[in-house]
Amino acid sequence: MLTKSSTELVRQQNSALVLASLRRHGPLAHTDISHHTGLASATVSVITAELEKAEVLERREQQAPAARGRPRVIFGQRRDAGYLATVRISSDMVQYSLADYGGTLLDRFEEPRNHADTATRPFTEAFVAALDKLAERSRIDRAQVLVVSISSKGLVDPVTARLVWSPVFGAQQVDFAALLQPPWRAKILLNNETLIVAHAMALRMEKAGMRDLQAVAALSLGHSIGLGIARFDRSGELSVTAPNFGHMLNSSDGKLCRCGAQGCIEASAGFYGILRTAFEVPPDTIPAKFVPLVEMDKIALRARQGHRMSEYAFRQAGLALGQGLSRVVSLYENMPIAITGPGTRYFDLLRRGVEEGLAQSQQVRLFGAPPISVVPEEATLVLEGHLDRALAEMDHDVIAARTDGD
Amino acid sequence: MLTKSSTELVRQQNSALVLASLRRHGPLAHTDISHHTGLASATVSVITAELEKAEVLERREQQAPAARGRPRVIFGQRRDAGYLATVRISSDMVQYSLADYGGTLLDRFEEPRNHADTATRPFTEAFVAALDKLAERSRIDRAQVLVVSISSKGLVDPVTARLVWSPVFGAQQVDFAALLQPPWRAKILLNNETLIVAHAMALRMEKAGMRDLQAVAALSLGHSIGLGIARFDRSGELSVTAPNFGHMLNSSDGKLCRCGAQGCIEASAGFYGILRTAFEVPPDTIPAKFVPLVEMDKIALRARQGHRMSEYAFRQAGLALGQGLSRVVSLYENMPIAITGPGTRYFDLLRRGVEEGLAQSQQVRLFGAPPISVVPEEATLVLEGHLDRALAEMDHDVIAARTDGD
DNA sequence: ACTTTTTTCTCGACAGTCGAGAAAATAAAT
DNA sequence: ATTTATTTTCTCGACTGTCGAGAAAAAAGT
User: Distance between CA B2 and CA A384 in Å, rounded?
Assistant: First the structure.
């Protein structure tokens, strides 16, 4: 149902607009804000004054006077208005980062994980300890950290911040919200990793000035297969989802997936699936929960040298991916696809299969194959996405607080 | 990007809210409007006064005084504020309906179509003539018809009101906007038929008071297979799409589809696909473009009597549908599915296959199978959907006109 | 010192919502 | 017939918000 509007909501929306334009274009002067947002100069004055009083914006002198006339006053985020932490959970390590309200990275470290260790307890303890360390190293009070944005592979319930199913812990759930007790008061955001990647890709493409960008898909190739879809809705806002692509049914070929089902895309295109085909292991067994990259590199090397079964394994993986993507574009719409993750180093071997799989649907025949780009540095994308989401969340809270606070 | 807000937009939004509540609950008194919308009584007064002056609302006396106190003044749409026509194009006939701004049906007739006739010209001429007839029979000036809402199977470009690909005309496009010259000035809405059905189903379920309804899918079974997905977005508004489900790749089994591709869902589950399997026609030929219902009934009868190949054909069709639906819930989320169309009369034969296909994915294993309901009267649903969409469009235009008009 | 230029700030007009209470209109009670 | 109770609609003033225009500020050029 529609919801009623009011003058206060107008102010909220326009304040959000000002903060968003500052995020997108960096520190701006009064005039530029007015120009970017379309708001009247007088309105911008009121809003910036308010945000200044709320101690989230600060005035900075223009360093290079350049032209004549009254010098501009530049508004920028007060970097000490709050802090955010991001956590990227992989099967073999966990990355922790800390940034301020201005979006500048203050600290970053990673801790190895033993992927054989499937219990959640050691992990959660290390998690809490690492966050403490993160705050301590930068001498920041834990109460000042307003958002902790976490990503993992697998299925996630973003509302309760619960990890529902993950390749690392299986069906053992992890309740992140429950982990951080006072003095932490941060809001916890938990999302699928590839959702974050899709978000970051959409941002990049939008900044690159792509016209008529409706949607973007990000496909992450690795031990597991992840897909994120970012769409700009009617109002132009970005809404991102992480469908269960890796475990979508590909074909009733009986290939066992580590999720327990048969014929998942991952069972063909995940690292263990490729290894299984290459080594002609029976399809009803899982050869290894975790396949080291060097092992995959060996198979790829053999494939490139002409070894039939290895070549075939990558080809089949590509085919499963291509068919899956053809279903994605059939069920959504044509959209650019960015492929990322450690599996991109084998994309030369996958490409033919992907193209073949894509070509099999009417959607692709009618509208052509979606443009595919390869973006290997997944870690950068994940950080970008985390930052944007966490900062947007902080901005949102700042504006919401205005009404009841003060 | 976000867009700026203003006090005028507030009024637009709230006016829309008032009209929408009148649509949902029927004619209402001042007090009830205030209650349903959450707007203050004073605000409702201003808005209704404005809409009254714009001649879209009228005051009606309360017939049964019931309680004591000042009698209520009921506001209702002025039925003569504008008219709408709906057109439902099927392969064997075209249905035309006319309704007023109050949503009451004024006239309805249908004209047979020769499905062997694949040229667009005779169709478009009949189309224009039928609309003229529709207006004339009710003595309504064609300029008073503000919206014509058209639905067809196949692929549609809703922006330009162009039929891109249809089972009837193939790749021959039909530009509906170009067909209606002055004195028509109606806005043309063109949508996939199953999109309209999904819209209507979402409305019904919402009215039935379903809690936490996120999304609804409608699956239409017939000569071709259609899917519509209706979702309530963050703001609670309904956004409906019609993915290319019927021609999504199901399996590389080589079954030729009439779209020219192989392995489409329709090639297994469309009427001609079922007939092909039942009669053991080679999968690389299309047995008939159009299979009469009596023919299908015969196959179904044989299947129910235990004839193996006929039973198998329906089972395979169900399997293709179930697998396709499992992909839908994997790529979107779990949602109730309403099955409609002439094919529902065979649902007893399809059911087992559908369930089997659904069960093959992790999504269904984790979250259970989506609830499936069968709603045979597709025509009613289509009309409901058309009316709601057309009336919403008219309401929207009324409100938008307020600003520049007068 | 004065002018030009550019930017920021301020003021009054206008549009919108809201709460409270006045006014209206009827049924019941006296 | 008049009064009272009740319910609904209408109206008024306060408040919040945006906007355009012009005043004020602040620097560079002359």
Answer: 20
